[in-house]
Amino acid sequence: MVVKYSGLMITNGKGLLGGNVLSGNQAGRMASIYRRPITRYKPSQLIRRNAFQGIVAGWMTLSDAQRSGWNTAAATGDWDWTNSIGINFNPSGFQLYVKLNSILVNADTSLATAPTKPTLSPPFLSSSTPVFNTSFVLGFSPASIGASELVYIYATDNLSPGVFSPRHSKYIFVRSITSVQFGATIDIFSAWSGIFGKMVVGCSIFVSAILVDAVSGDTANIGIRRTLVT
After folding, report:
1. What domains are defined for the chain?
2. What is the DSSP letter of 170?
């Protein structure tokens, strides 16, 4: 639950408050009555839920000294986060542990028991060129990443050419790229078409690239590109 005040009035918020759900969209902010979901978890939700339970179990096995290390690291300001209503804050040690280890779980590496803040020198996603049902080439500069680093690629489906800022939920994980696979150009057509199907000429496709350190779980956004299918 996050709430933003102006004087004594609530001007923004998100989450559960007194039995009401605060939310919003492009039409404005709203409050609705909370109703317990009755739908079953999807397989992907179960995977994330089980992964989260494993991470929490890992936190419970840490010593007091190790937890203190996470709390100290979180308070340094090296990990400056922004919440759902745009306010910057420092996470707690537990929040930092869960966030970094969630990334490591996705990278199929072991959980980190101590926080580290590596100096990432990320490449830049310099180009994105989808050619109708033939190729989808991404360009990177420089053409190398560290041995322990991965690049996660997220992309959208065919969108209207009038869309310039799609919602975060529109981005779907497409594939990961290891340091061995990484290069100046990477063709993601097979991975993209395996998820979304055929391209539509004239539509927009957005691509987001995230650099991940597979030892610490730290990340860096290395670019978002919007291009039209030709």
Report:
1. 2-33 (no CATH), 43-106 (no CATH), 124-228 (2.60.40.10)
2. G
Q: What is the end-to-end Cα distance of the chain in Å, rounded?
A: 44
| Separation between Cα atoms, residue 22 and residue 33, nearest integer Å | 9
Residues 6+ apart with CB under 8 A from 145: 122, 123, 151, 179, 182, 211
Find the helix or strand (DSSP H, E) in which 97 lies.
Answer: helix 93-106
DSSP three-state, residue 72? helix
Distance separating alpha carbons of residues 104 and 17, to the nearest angstrom: 33
At 117-160, the pLDDT tens digits run: 766 667 888 888 888 889 999 999 888 888 888 899 999 999 99
3-state secondary structure of 21: strand
